[in-house]
Amino acid sequence: MNHKELNEKNSIFDCLFTAQEIEKRKELWKVLCDDFFSKFINRADTVVDLGAGYCEFINNIKCRKKIAVDLNRHPKKYANDDVEVIISPATTVAQIEDNFADVVFTSNFWEHMRDREEMKRTLIEVKRILKPSGKLIILQPNIRYSYKVYWDFFDHIIPLSHKSMEEILRFMGFKIKYIQPKFLPYSTKSKWPQSAFLVKLYLKMPFLHYIFGKQMVIVAEKGD
């Protein structure tokens, strides 16, 4: 990607959320990390947030070592002091050693891949970074349940359902340990839920996921 393309990417990213929305997202992500994602992550783990963006996940998750990776420089602005920031393409994160991370996390990431080959190269890099039996945690819009609004974001390129995501993960040598096709609403711009308290309630009421859920959660383990 040349400098012009990188600047265009940053401009699109800059327009996604207002300052008020960014602050609200911090509150929501604290609940998501404490009440849901923490069950997949140990306090002693090294965690890499791939496509970290505003760093809402990596800032809030409790673990030993935190690394935020992104192509643009937003994590430099938003990452907490205990987060190491790496500016790099996801296909070649040369600063991270082989078999280094216990967990790689992605949120609303894979739909932005330029094509399926880039997605496969990124999954190869994730496998390289992960320790044996390390986990890849994916929070991702599910095209099967969000098809009416999936393309409302200009930079959404690849449509993925929980079935196609599961298929490519297995093909690339991952083992599926957990899959929930319907979890969160499509985006934090949705009308509900919009407060930390409501998110807490939402997480405790799985039947609501089947009504409002438009995003999937998948936990995959690095295979041989």
Mean pLDDT: 90
End-to-end separation in angstroms reads: 32 Å
Helical proportion?
25-40%
Tally of individual helices: 9
Strand content: 15-25%
- Specify the oligomeric state: single chain
- How large, in whole angstroms, is the Cα Rg? 16 Å
Q: How many domains is the backbone divided into?
A: 1
CATH topology: Rossmann fold
Number of strands: 7
Uncertain residue ranges? 1-8
SSE pattern: HHEHEHEEHEHHEHHE
Largest sheet: 7 strands, mixed
Spatial order of the strands forming the largest sheet: 3-2-1-4-5-7-6
CATH superfamily: Vaccinia Virus protein VP39
Form type: globular
CATH architecture group name: 3-Layer(aba) Sandwich
Write the layout of secondary structure elements.
Layout: H1 3-14, H2 19-35, E1 46-50, H3 56-60, E2 65-70, H4 74-78, E3 83-87, E4 101-107, H5 116-129, E5 130-141, H6 143-146, H7 162-171, E6 174-180, H8 196-204, H9 206-212, E7 215-222
Parallel strand pairs: 1-2, 1-4, 2-3, 4-5
Antiparallel strand pairs: 5-7, 6-7
Helix pairs in contact: 2-8
Which structural traits does this protein have?
globular, alpha/beta, 224 residues, Rossmann fold, disordered N terminus, 7-stranded mixed sheet
